[in-house]
């Protein structure tokens, strides 16, 4: 595999590709509008994974950079899966200097538990203390 490059440079992100993946191929954001994807990028710490200058993966972290972070929208394009791209992105996320010393770092996943467990994520210690407002079909309208 050619050299993989992970960057937090938002100017390098292929927003059209990110939107296309999230809105058409993800399991969690089908139908998400481009304006919503752009606003999410603008207000998050974003990680792009690049092979030969072409973006092949994405992850974003919503955080106050002091006490809390939420990892979201993690994906690797289908053609690059199984080649370690997600692990390289997660290594970069977990090593980022602005994400150190957080009291809580959360995420939600339906199918990548073993990936995230390798970086110290576990089921909530106190699930009864967590609450949410969840609208899974919000972009369907």
UniProtKB/TrEMBL annotation:
InterPro entries: Acetyltransferase_Butenolide, Acyl_CoA_acyltransferase, GNAT_dom
Keywords: Transferase
PROSITE patterns in the cross-refs: GNAT (PS51186)
GO molecular function: acyltransferase activity, transferring groups other than amino-acyl groups
Entry keyword annotation includes Transferase: yes
N-acetyltransferase domain span: 4-141
SUPFAM superfamilies recorded: Acyl-CoA N-acyltransferases (Nat) (SSF55729)
Pfam family, one: Acetyltransf_1
Keyword Aminoacyl-tRNA synthetase assigned: no
Name of protein: GNAT family N-acetyltransferase
Native source species: Duganella alba
